[in-house]
Amino acid sequence: MNTSIAITLATQAAELTDLTTRFQARYAKLNRLSPTTPIEAHRLAHAIFEKQREIAQLLDTDALVEPLPRWPWWQHQLTLDLAAVGDLAREINHLITCCAYGEALASSDLAPAIRSSQAAIAGMLHPDARAAALQRRHQRHAIGSLLSWN
């Protein structure tokens, strides 16, 4: 993890905030998606999930494998809510601070804080988004291995 990737995470979190706000404004009372649910609700819920997967893909593998447990919002609601997205954005800002500080001092003393911050971020994401990011990472690794044999 470095400052540049952490800043990319912040951009992704801003986009997630936009999607979540739109979903909450229109469909906050939905408990689940069904065939009678408006198509736009399906699209937004899918986009929110995909944005979480994109965020997860930017985190180190260790954070995805061992996330810090947080309140399991996915057991109680359909998508992230604005409070959860706000917590995620704050933690990403903390990660940016740790990375930038460590890079400015050319020090690895902040490595534990960076790992912990990434694990906290991972713990806020839907477990299926983390799993999808890990699966994609493994697929890319397998493809890379196959291509290197040629």
Gist of the model:
The chain is mostly helical. It has helices spanning 3-27, 39-58, 61-65, 82-105, 111-124, 127-149.
**Count of individual beta strands:** 0
Rough outline = globular
Structural class: mainly alpha
The portion of residues assigned to helices is over 70%
Our estimate of the beta-strand percent is under 5%
Averaging pLDDT over every residue, what do you get? 92
Order of helices and strands: HHHHHH
Instruction: Please mark out the parts with pLDDT under 50 across 5 or more consecutive residues, or reply none.
Output: none
Through-space gap between termini: 31 Å
Our Rg estimate from Cα atoms comes to 17 Å
Count of helix runs: 6
Sketch the major β-sheet.
none
Number of domains: 1
Mind sketching the topology for me?
Elements: H1 3-27, H2 39-58, H3 61-65, H4 82-105, H5 111-124, H6 127-149
Helix pairs in contact: 1-2, 1-4, 2-6, 4-5
